[in-house]
Amino acid sequence: MCQEDTMRHNRDMKYGEYHPNLDIEDVISGSDGMQQVRAAGDSCYWLANISAENNRGTIKRWHNGEVFDLTPDRNIRTRVNEYGGGTYDVDDHNLVYVDDVTKQVFCQAHNSTAKPISPSSDLVRFAGLRLATELGLVFAVRETHHADRESDTELVALKLTSDNDNFGEVIATGADFYGRPAYSKNRIAWAQWNHPNMPWDSCEIWATEITAEPKYIAGGPEISSVNPFFLADGTLGWFDDGEGYWNICLENGLRFSEKYDACLPPWIFSEPPVAQIDDHTLIGLHYVSGLGSLASFDLTTGEITDLDLGMAEVESVASSPAGVFVISHWADKPTSLAKFNGGKLMPLITENGFECTSPESIWFDGIAGKTHALLYPVPDNGDGPPPVIVRCHGGPTGMARPGYDLETQFWCSRGIQILDINYSGSAGFGRQYRERLKGNWGVLDVADCISAVEELIATNRIAKDKVAIMGGSAGGYTVLQSLVTSDVFSAGISKYGIGDLVAMTKDTHKFESRYLDGLVGQYPQQVEIYQQRSPINHIDKLATPMLILQGNEDLVVPLNQAEDMAAAVREKGLPVALLVFEGEGHGFRNVSTRKTALAAQLSFLAQVWGFEPAGEIAKLAIENLN
Q1: In Å, what is the CA distance from 506 to each residue of 290, 424, 512, 568?
Q2: d(CA 260, CA 248)
Q3: How does residue 418 score in pLDDT terms, banded at 50, 70 and 90?
């Protein structure tokens, strides 16, 4: 059946029962990731996550139109700060990477065999790799775990031709956290910050020549300076939000001032989202009304020019003498790798995709001011407005972005709309928008979700009796808090969500162990606020069916959070289903898990809302459902 015939046929069917143009298998098998582009010599490289192999990470190389898998027998991943990033680096001579199985750093000279350059240990992790081949070194962030105290994070140097039995020579120590280092011309720079701050709260840039003492460069209280990088001539640059937005700054005094963010919060050890085209021009990204696009930055005049290339998001950008390479997300087609040339993107790698629904960017009135969301509409069947799933992104200092997403299309093709909320506290809209949530987590994020729903109900865009809310991690907390705060939602789906804020202060990992100080209040001094905003303490106000999905190896939001919430809902006699997946951590990676989880979500909504989904969907067992 062609797309036009399918749409015509769907108009005669109930919402939720539309014949989809993709099924669960399509979603899982067609969602390989492409990220962390690098450029060296006449080639470009990237980290690919192979969906069919439980999201195994591997490094791929593009050269003269051919693609090579450089690490087919490895899983390239790091778990520093639990979220990882900066898993590899490459230059004209060497490739270095972290293997997830052994936790070792490997060095592979081009056209030779990879060799480990660090011991294997479950207690020592590496991330944020940065090659300095002319020095015979790779710089890295090292995280050392202890049984009786918090882990240590330090900046170290590993020798490329050594086993490094000492796990590297320390370059910088004393701060609670270090970001990915930058290197150029015998000079190294990095970001560092301390508890109770997150890097987007207060963060500093430091730099040093290899044998000298570190020197403070920028940042400090209420200023986030992140993502250091070097220009070709050795000039140091970074991203600084001292004027309210993360702008590109250079140590020569030039600042590219604009009221848009030019980067996102450094949750992972990512490469700075900027590359140098020539002596006078940088190319990078900036976020305008929730959309990430490429822009050029003139090093002579300080002028910024939006390149208006049509993408919805730029994942990463890198340059070499061979050109500038970009991984782009699009609203209506899969992620692509392209070469930027003459003001245009020349595709190098594109994948076939499914026809999909493009989002509408909308602004609504929230309690704290105008708030952003993305609505993915579905064809009207003439039987009133369609149902909707309100999705809450993680973080909460994260962002809902409009890139091509097969899971979004999975729902839309069945006649269920998606509403992604960039609630107060989201990234990509400047520091003031981000800091709306300070002291207000569990209040403003919830209020924004409710306000968006009420506005769309009032304008007859969504069915008022079929509004579900879904989210993972911090988004899962917003789900649970919304369900004990409001009656506008008829179903809730929490993926590894937080139900008990007090327990979270005791059980979570180092990186986020003081995150709630800013989002909620100081603990234990303000324990009453934590108790008041913990959904587990307000089950008496809950009247909504709930599906809870959780991994048993989650170190960010431990299993007990899901078990305690499910037990409380069960005891109240409300419909509930809890699925615990063996071997899964914070976010699901295994193919079987992701298939089961998506099928469970569809079956859950079908039973709660009363429709029969197309295809063979295993029926989820829901306790207490009449």
Answers
A1: 34, 26, 11, 20
A2: 11
A3: very high
Place of tokens 């969504």: 462
Q: d(Cα 292, Cα 295) in Å, to the nearest integer?
A: 10
Q: Which two tokens mark 31?
A: 């969602």
Percentage of the chain exceeding pLDDT 90? 82
pTM as predicted: 0.94
The number of residues making up the chain comes to 626
The residues with which 524 forms a beta bridge, in sequence order, are none
Residue 36 Rama label (left phi>0; alpha psi -120 to 50; beta): left
Which residues are CB-contacts of 78 (< 8 A; sequence separation ≥ 6)? 84, 85, 86, 87, 98, 100, 125, 126, 127, 269
User: Which residues partner with 43 through β-bridges?
Assistant: 40
pLDDT of res. 589: 85
* Contact call for residues 157 and 126 (beta carbons, < 8 A): no
Q: What does the pLDDT look like over 137-176, one tens digit per residue?
A: 999 999 999 999 999 999 999 999 999 999 999 999 999 9
Between the CA of residue 458 and those of 215, 366, 392, what are the distances in Å? 56, 15, 21
Query: H-helix or E-strand containing 541?
Result: none
Domains and CATH numbers, the chain: 355-609 (3.40.50.1820)
The residue written with tokens 């305690």 in the block is 564
Q: How far, in Å, CA of 522 to CA of 100, rounded?
A: 35
Own/partner pairs, 188-191, CB within 8 angstroms, 24+ separation = 188/130, 188/132, 188/139, 189/217, 189/228, 189/230, 189/236, 189/238, 190/155, 190/228, 191/219, 191/225, 191/226, 191/227, 191/228, 191/238, 191/266
